[in-house]
Amino acid sequence: MNIILELIKVIFGVLGFLLAVMLLFLEWMTPSKPGETPASYYLLVVCLVMIINGTIMAGVKARENRKLKDESLSDDEKAAFTRKRKKIGRLLPLLYLVAIIAVSVAKDVTAQNVAQRRRDAEKARLEAAQNIKYEMLLVSSHDLAAGTVISWEDLGTKRAPVGSAKGKLVPPDDRKKIKGCKIKVAYPAGTPIRWSDLEPPEADHQ
What we know:
Elements: H1 2-29, H2 39-69, H3 75-131, E1 134-140, E2 155-161, H4 175-178, E3 182-183, E4 198-199
Helix pairs in contact: 1-2, 2-3
């Protein structure tokens, strides 16, 4: 019966250990407050202790049962083995301490690796942003309906990455050339002006 109880401890310990590992992974993906220890870390330690304790004690008690049933052994030998089993039980707290230290070290190392990966990713993002080239685009300063005749008030400029706008764009220096042109399609505010969307003023007189 004692062996069955120890095996049940091991089973629950393994299930809890797997759950704690999954929770820790999810929590490590979400930055926590500095110095904050996830609750799943403590669950991980408890389950690890349960696995170690249950495995060792189940093995020791199984062997003790076999020895106690061995008629070739004297009562003193059986008593000596029982004392040995109790001594192992007293040494288990030391194993628990080792397990806690091992998990703590693994936790810290993993947390440092995750933090380093985040720093590397942020550094790469900043370096990529610094290498982006920008250009000034001629855009609609407000929403323009299709058929609007363009005036100075309808035009503005904005800074955008090179190549972010598609089509043949009207350069900001050519804004004088499109004054009085009619746009063929509706332009939301901030839309780059394209030559293909413009109808020259001469078309109004055809």
